[in-house]
């Protein structure tokens, strides 16, 4: 019998208990592709999972880790064979199916994307769900027919995971990017990612008129609430905003005026469902558009034995940038 190291969350009475354990490969959940996990990453969701906050984990026991990259060791899926380097994000991994905080994984091949040649597993994990979501937003804006020549793009929650990648990806695609942040100290960081203008979060935090001066052709919003309402009110004729987050609230206190008087579109973006064609297109674009040095600058690599402690720390806001876990 072959054993591997994993972080496992067990439910005990009303609490959750996350710890390092040795597991047998026979304990892995069903799937048609086996992987030696080489890298994972710490997402906020993983922090919630290991601390038992929020209803992230949908079955117990669970191996957390919503993002993972690794090498295929066995496959009966037609698209994959032993030796392939692959990445998995979302699709219930780390929530309903054993995830990336382990040396081994067994997944459905329908959730996997072969890593484009130029993207290493460590860089793919730096990008992770956050970067993939930002790319989904850019692709949604492009599908809507928008281009950098239409005017500037705005990104809210810009210094966060999704926001940072949205700034970098929009700038790399040629957009003039205005970055909304509540952290003025992050201005240099955002400029280094490609932001042309830094806007204060407070300017978007108070309820405003339903129609305001037209400033942006496109937007990526990770905040929701009043911020999204104000961005919509400042979006120009035929512009669009990709909405993907709710750090500022689940509500949308807006009017229909931007939609019916300016033809503004609100494009919903979610990253968990397995739409494999979109995932492959997004990873391919990430590999060609994002500079490797820029990805590396956003990342801290830690060994697996520090992963649990760092996952617990993310929910207290003690982590900046992307923390990538390197398996032994
Ligand atoms: P982060 O915590 O990394 O970043 C969020 C950023 O938002 C912060 O860095 C901060 O940036 C800003 N912010 C925080 N609190 C507030 C507030 N109260 N009001 C306004 N701005 C605030 O999160 P992620 O980037 O990983 O995720 C962002 C959002 O996107 C979350 O809601 C997350 O759940 C969602 N998400 C959705 C996905 C989907 O599939 N739909 C996938 C991934 C994420 P600054 O200081 O620069 O303003």
From TrEMBL:
SUPFAM superfamilies: GroES-like, NAD(P)-binding Rossmann-fold domains. It comes from Methylocystis echinoides. InterPro entries: Acrylyl-CoA_reductase_AcuI, ADH-like_C, ADH-like_N, ER, GroES-like_sf, NAD(P)-bd_dom_sf, Zn-ADH-like_protein. Residues 15-325 form the Enoyl reductase (ER) domain. One of its GO terms (molecular function) is acryloyl-CoA reductase (NADPH) activity. It comes from the Bacteria. This is Alcohol dehydrogenase. Gene3D superfamilies: Medium-chain alcohol dehydrogenases, catalytic domain (3.90.180.10), NAD(P)-binding Rossmann-like Domain (3.40.50.720).
């Amino acid at each position: 019998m072959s054993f591997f190291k994993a972080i496992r969350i067990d439910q005990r009475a009303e609490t959750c208990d996350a710890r390092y354990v040795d597991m047998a490969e026979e304990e892995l959940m069903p799937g048609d592709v086996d992987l030696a996990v080489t890298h994972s990453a710490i997402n906020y969701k993983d922090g919630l999972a290991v601390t038992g906050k929020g209803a992230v984990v949908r079955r117990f026991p669970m191996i957390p880790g919503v993002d993972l990259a690794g090498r295929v060791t066995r496959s009966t899926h037609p698209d994959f064979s032993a030796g392939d380097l692959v990445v998995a994000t979302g699709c219930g991994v780390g929530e309903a199916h054993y995830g990336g905080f382990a040396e081994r994984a067994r997944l459905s091949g329908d959730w996997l994307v072969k890593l484009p040649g130029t993207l290493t597993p460590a860089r793919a994990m730096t990008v992770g769900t956050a970067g993939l979501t930002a790319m989904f937003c850019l692709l949604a804006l492009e599908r809507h027919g928008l281009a950098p020549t239409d005017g500037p793009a705005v990104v809210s929650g810009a210094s966060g995971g999704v926001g940072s990648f949205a700034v970098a990806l929009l700038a790399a695609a040629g957009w003039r990017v205005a970055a909304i942040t509540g952290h003025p100290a992050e201005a240099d960081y955002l400029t280094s990612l490609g932001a042309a203008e830094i806007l204060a979060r407070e300017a978007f935090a108070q309820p405003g008129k339903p129609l305001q001066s037209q400033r942006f052709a496109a937007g990526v919003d990770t905040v929701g609430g009043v911020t999204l309402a104000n961005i919509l009110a400042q979006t120009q004729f035929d512009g669009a905003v990709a909405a993907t987050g709710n750090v500022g609230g689940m509500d949308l206190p807006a009017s229909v005026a931007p939609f019916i008087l300016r033809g503004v579109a609100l494009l919903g973006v979610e990253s968990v469902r397995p739409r494999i064609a979109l995932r492959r297109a997004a990873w391919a674009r990430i590999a060609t558009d994002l500079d490797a040095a820029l990805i590396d600058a956003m990342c801290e690599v830690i060994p697996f034995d520090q992963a649990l402690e760092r996952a617990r720390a993310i929910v207290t806001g003690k982590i900046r940038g992307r923390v990538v876990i390197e398996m032994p």
